[in-house]
Q: What sequence folds into this?
């Protein structure tokens, strides 16, 4: 029996969507991407959505947009302090470095694997300009507490929700609590669009900035009346090659938009099965006293199943890796583990570490995760449970 980290969520509908695009000859971003963005915004309860080439480039544009807004309450400048959790994917952090921000790493909670809320509270200073909350492995942060901490402070809340599509907190979709939130639709995530990402926001100006930054910094994709340049000219030839912001080319393929439309229709059922698998996982593995399982906050979308060995565990992580490897059980570190161990890349950062990060380091030394799926994996989970004694 092989237990993969992820499996395809595609069927004939996605293949037909690709085939239709090939027949049409439309490969660059167009109507399908626009329709996907409308569907995405509606599904997550946001006013606007902007599809990108990946979750990583969604993070890049999210940070970049805050440098060009005219709204001073939502504006970032080089040297501003941004608080992040010490456990996340690398491209949560890299846009912060690339835009010259001061990155403050804060420890995680050993149970939720998101922000340690006490450390987050203690780390906030008069210099703090933004908090970038990461919802890890499908699990929401406690946004009621986070909003309480930043109440009446001049602090921007952002979300990296790339691993937690479909999670909710107090009935609200994660990714929608901050000024902007990012999503990923990479193969191993909740939906798959080849490569792909998305940014949601309720702010019209930021939406227009994102549209401009996504494609070369030109004005072509902006509405006639917009909050980047004001009113566009009537001369298409001149306006189509007018550049307003120092942007990128991080557009998605039209095929990714077409696939995304089909995938988004499936998402409620995909989430339902993932949560059913999570119930089975919890039933089977919670009886292992030496195993720490991620504590759900709100309603998790269960990206995967983390396993952290307690200090008194009768086995080591090396033992677990050996058993899983021999039995075709795919596994990974819990995201990057403690990102602050990566001193080579941190040499390029303006950063500070709040405290000693004991929980992030413990997770780094003693944790891993296995995948969750959109199909029933009860039999496979029982097999894995038997392997662990």
A:
């Amino acid at each position: 029996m092989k237990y993969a980290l992820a499996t395809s969520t595609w069927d004939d509908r996605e293949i037909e969507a690709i085939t239709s695009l090939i027949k049409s000859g439309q490969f660059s971003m167009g109507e399908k991407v626009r329709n996907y963005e409308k569907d995405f915004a509606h599904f997550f309860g946001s006013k606007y959505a902007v599809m990108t080439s990946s979750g990583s480039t969604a993070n890049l544009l999210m940070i970049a947009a805050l440098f060009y807004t005219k709204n001073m309450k939502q504006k970032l400048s080089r040297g501003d302090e941004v608080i992040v959790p010490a456990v996340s994917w690398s491209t949560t952090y890299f846009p912060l470095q690339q835009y010259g921000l001061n990155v403050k790493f804060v420890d995680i909670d050993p149970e939720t694997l998101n922000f340690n809320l006490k450390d987050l509270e203690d780390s906030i200073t008069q210099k703090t300009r933004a908090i970038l909350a990461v919802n890890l492995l499908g699990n929401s942060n406690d946004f009621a507490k986070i909003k309480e901490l930043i109440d009446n402070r001049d602090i921007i809340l952002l979300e990296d929700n790339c691993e937690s599509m479909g999670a909710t907190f107090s009935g609200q979709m994660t990714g929608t609590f901050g000024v902007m939130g990012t999503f990923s639709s990479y193969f191993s995530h909740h939906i798959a669009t080849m490569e792909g990402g998305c940014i949601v926001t309720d702010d019209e100006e930021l939406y227009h900035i994102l549209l401009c930054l996504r494609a070369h910094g030109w004005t072509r994709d902006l509405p006639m009346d917009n909050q980047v340049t004001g009113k566009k000219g009537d001369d298409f030839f001149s306006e189509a090659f007018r550049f307003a912001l120092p942007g990128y080319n991080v557009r998605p393929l039209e095929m990714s938009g077409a696939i995304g439309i089909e995938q988004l229709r499936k998402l409620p059922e995909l989430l339902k099965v993932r949560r059913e698998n999570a119930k089975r996982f919890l039933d089977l593995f919670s009886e292992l006293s030496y195993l720490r399982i991620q504590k759900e906050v709100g309603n998790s979308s269960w990206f995967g199943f983390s396993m952290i060995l307690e200090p008194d565990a009768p086995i080591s992580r090396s033992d677990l890796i050996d058993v899983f490897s021999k039995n075709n059980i795919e596994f990974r570190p819990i995201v990057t583990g403690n990102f602050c161990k990566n001193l080579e890349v941190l040499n390029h950062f303006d950063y500070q570490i709040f405290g000693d990060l004991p929980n992030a380091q413990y997770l780094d030394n003693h944790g891993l995760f296995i995948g969750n799926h959109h199909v029933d994996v009860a039999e496979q989970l029982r097999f894995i449970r038997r392997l662990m004694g």
